[in-house]
Amino acid sequence: MTPSSPGRTPSSAGTGGDGTAGTDGRGTAGARGPGPPPRPKFAAAARAALTDTRQRRNLRGATAVARGRAAAATAEPADWEALREAGRAIRDETLLGLDTHLEGLERAVTAAGGTVHWAPDAAEARRIVTALVRATGAAEVLKAGSLAVREIGAGDALARAGITLRETALADLVVQLGEDEPSHLLSPAAHRDRAEIRELFLRKMPGAPPDLPDDPEALAAAARAHLRGRFLSARVAITGANFLVAETGTVVVLESEGNGRMCLTLPDTLITVAGIEKVVPTWADLEVFLQLLPRSSSGDRMTPYVSSWTGVTPGDGPAEFHLVLLDNGRTQALADEIGRAALRCVRCSACLNVCPVYERTGGRAYGPVYPGPIGAILTPQMRGVESAADASLPYASTLCGACADVCPVKIDIPGVLVHLRGKVVESRRRRPVPTPELLMMRGLAWTMGDPRRYETALRRGTRWVRLMSRGGRIRRLPGLLGTWTEARDLPLPPSESFRGWWRRRNA
Amino acid sequence: MSAPGEAAAGPREEILRRVREAVGGPRAARPPVPRDYARRLTGSEAETRADVLALFTERVADQRAAVRHVSADELATAVAAALWGREAKQIVVPADLPFGWLAELDGVRALADTPAVDMGTLAAVDGAVTGCAVAVAQTGTVVLDGGRAQGRRALTLVPGYHLCVVQADQIVGTVPEAVGRLDPSRPLTWISGPSATHDIEMTRVEGVHGPCHLEVLVVED
Ligand code: SF4
């Protein structure tokens, strides 16, 4: 199989065109049709996800465990709040001086023997990565957990160039074999249970023993055996980065399985793809993030493996190191004074695990790459709110605020969501035909402006709405009001209003 | 068409221009980053040196790695005993591992690492013995920097078992202390317990791609 699958949504660049084959003129122009159908709005995707009870059960279990682990780990240090405050301030500092830090980073990486590449959009990043891999002549590339690599759609681009991108993290492998979308930042296969994984391995993994049991130990061992030989003979690997230290040119990766270490140590050529916001100014800043990130994400005091490297080291690790710095809409988010807070994110996934909406819908409803509350604020900023799908994301929340309470870099996610909703409304306001919400709000303002009008409307409305119910719940409101019920059921309104009851009681 | 290196000038300026435009013109001085977090251990955890060592031991054990305290005289015997316990026949060690550490190895062959040792050989041996650069009590972590007695990174990655010798004076209390002691220009590996995953139904499984077993010997004088 190839890593590209027909059902997969190609990620698209925030700026410029995308979805076309490589522009490097080697005759690989893909026979892609007019493009994929538009991604569904969050509510539609969520409705589909909500009917998948197996996924819901799996996710509920996974998020509950992750939530508990992180809660215990973050309660332990007495100085946790001070660390969060420092983390927030360092990330803000980084973003406001990002140009200087990026230049410093480039200087330091280059001085240490690495090469820095700049990719304004996904298409350019794909071109750079494909050209780098081609230059090595390798037919296979190993990949260790990188959201940025997925974001740019490197898998499809490499496949078109005849190169196989092979996932190495257990969960990513499960997602790749199952040809579906990751559902969680940290555990991309959180929606799959052991029986499903066993079945996938048997069907798709060459050499899986036919009597493979479905206990997690045996499944992990099967994955280990499957990838071992590949690691030992690997020539090229692609990784992401958790942090890029501007001052020293050091790249930092946190992981727990060891596949990251394999990828960044054993091949001859290492390509790291990272968003430009991954920078931290100084080496000393890591003392904060190496505490915040492990505890908030996996709930470990320290992630099992933290690797860092600066350029190349003769006799130890790859002889060639390339760092691809990716913009792809990040500067667009940076330009929004409120929204830019989303770029502080260190991808710990704590906000996913506490989110009641995410727990029920799963990550895939959020569209490409970034799921959960952080996806709901990051994706529309990086891609703009022109498409209905991206414009729907700021509404994928109940604004309960749980995410902001756990975020280790104190991103006010609900605040940004509200701000983005405002932007969506603003962008719709400019359209010649007023939106249903606008008309409805105007109507409401008129009705509620007068007590008599209000009461009459209430009585009539109640009677109408009760007529629409089925089994004591309302599943779909008619016409323009339908948007509200796309992903919600409404309880029935009581037959009598409070005002009515009060009047009767005092009569 | 173009080598990635050649194309770099245009896109670089483009990204930097967008950043400058996004962040805006002259930037006001910003308040310094508040760093009110603890740099050292506080309270009962750190009253004596012994408390710090005890914390390290407890935290390493929490991650399901084996950990033992030995005196300098006992080290060679303890190393040998650990390897015998695993029925190791052949191990690999950094070329500059102190000779004394392996003095009691009986029936276990130690291969000194050289550039000629290939990955197949590393995958076939029964384990690796190394020292470390720094260890962190608070998190139960050993950090290797490729310096003395540590070797290249593949040594502690490919074999299935890693025995790490920690000198008591290498143990610091906190992450900030460790970061302060380390040299970022070296390739660093922070190891906290064996390779692990929670990816199947959030059940912890040890030993995915990295070593399945980590054992730590703390040398006290
Ligand atoms: S927004 Fe905050 S909580 Fe969510 S993934 Fe990012 S850093 Fe973690």
Automatic annotation (TrEMBL), chain A:
Residues 14-33 have a biased composition (Gly residues). Residues 1-46 are annotated as: Disordered. The keyword Cytoplasm does not apply. Pfam families: Fer4_8 (PF13183), LUD_dom (PF02589), LutB_C (PF11870). Residues 342-411 form the 4Fe-4S ferredoxin-type domain. InterPro entries: 4Fe4S_Fe-S-bd, FTHF_cligase-like_sf, Helical_ferredxn, LUD_dom, LutB/LldF, LutB_C, NagB/RpiA_transferase-like. This is Lactate utilization protein. The lineage of its organism: Bacteria, Bacillati, Actinomycetota, Actinomycetes, Streptosporangiales.
Automatic annotation (TrEMBL), chain B:
Residues 122-219 form the LUD domain. Pfam families: LUD_dom. It comes from the Bacteria. PANTHER family: LACTATE UTILIZATION PROTEIN C. This is LUD domain-containing protein.
